[in-house]
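Try this one yourself first.
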C-alpha cells in the first residue's frame, strides 16, 4: 500500500463526455447540448459524475494494488459540475481523502479504503 499522495490530471473535453455517454447509455441532454446547459445556468455541458468516480478508482488501484479490486470501498459526494475545458485534478491524500478540483472549484469529495 502506498502512503504517498496520488494525483491524476485530465483536461475535460466534449469528446470525453460523448464517448463516456456511449459507454454507459446516459442520454441526458445536459451532457451533450451546450446551449441547453447554458440556458439552465451552467457554464456548458456537464461531465458524467461517474467519469470522475472512475478517476478516483484508478488512483485507488494504484494506491492499494490488487486488493482494491476485491476489498475497495469508495465514498464520494458530487459538489459541482465539470465542463469542457476544465482542467480536473483528482487527488487521493495520504490519509485516503479524495478531492477533485477544477481551476474554478472543488467538484467532488470523498474517501477510499480497504474493507
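Now uncover the answer:
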Amino acid at each position: 500500500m502506498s502512503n504517498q499522495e496520488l494525483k491524476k490530471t485530465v483536461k475535460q473535453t466534449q469528446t470525453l463526455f460523448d464517448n463516456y455517454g456511449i459507454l454507459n447509455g446516459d442520454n441526458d441532454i445536459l451532457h451533450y447540448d451546450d446551449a441547453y446547459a447554458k440556458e439552465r445556468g451552467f457554464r456548458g455541458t456537464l461531465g458524467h459524475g461517474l467519469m470522475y468516480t472512475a478517476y478516483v478508482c484508478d488512483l485507488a488501484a494504484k494506491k492499494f494494488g490488487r486488493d482494491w479490486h476485491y476489498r475497495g470501498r469508495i465514498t464520494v459526494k458530487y459538489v459541482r459540475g465539470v465542463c469542457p475545458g476544465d482542467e480536473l485534478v483528482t487527488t487521493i491524500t495520504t490519509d485516503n481523502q479524495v478531492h477533485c478540483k477544477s481551476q474554478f472549484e472543488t467538484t467532488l469529495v470523498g474517501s477510499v479504503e480497504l474493507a
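Discussion: The chain has a mean pLDDT of 95. The first helix runs from residue 14 to 24.
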